[in-house]
Amino acid sequence: GELLSFDQYTQMVGACFFETGLSGAPLVPGGEHIPITVENVREFVACASDFWFKTGVTKQIEAFRAGLDDVFPFECLASFTSAELREMFCGEDRIEWDEQQLLAHFHPVGGLTDKSPVYKHLVQVLLDLDHSDRARFLDFVSSCPRLPPGGISAFNVDVFPDTSRERGFPRSRACANQLYLPPYNTKEELRGKLYEAMHCSAGHYEQHGRDA
Questions:
Q1: 10-residue block means of pLDDT along the chain (212 residues)?
Q2: Which of 71, 83, 103, 167 has the fewest CB atoms within 10 Å, i.e. is most exposed?
């Protein structure tokens, strides 16, 4: 197709001085009537940044601070460093585990045992993951890409057999830290299916019904 200039494209999609360029609150008075052009795009970026990180969230941040202060006075937080607070609220930055820890905190249930081949394959695959893929796995199985405060010792996953499909993808019930594995024959098959499930199904991996 014919190539469009920046101005032609923004005119075609109707981009104006809204918070997203297409919708939301006007960034300036009458912003809904100010089209984004090559000449004013820097001004638009500056206004949008100010809205997203300052003026557009000030009331929400103030309300959050006031609510938190009602139950946990801010003076008490002064005893902690920013890193300590981040760890308490967000979990640990580093994702570390070894084979014994995985065996202790990933529980084979529903007919699986620690002798089941697919469970053994899972443990070996998890040991092989780099830090980035460990975060992906945690997000897949728990909806959080970090371990909780205390690390793997404070984290548990139930591993179920998934007999509803012969060679489908792993599934999870992230709200309950449950992982469902089809009966893969090899470590390589499990690795490939798990990798694709982790990377390609963000937001869509929750199992809607627990198998009987």
A1: 89 94 94 96 96 93 90 84 84 91 97 96 97 94 91 95 82 93 94 92 46 36
A2: 71
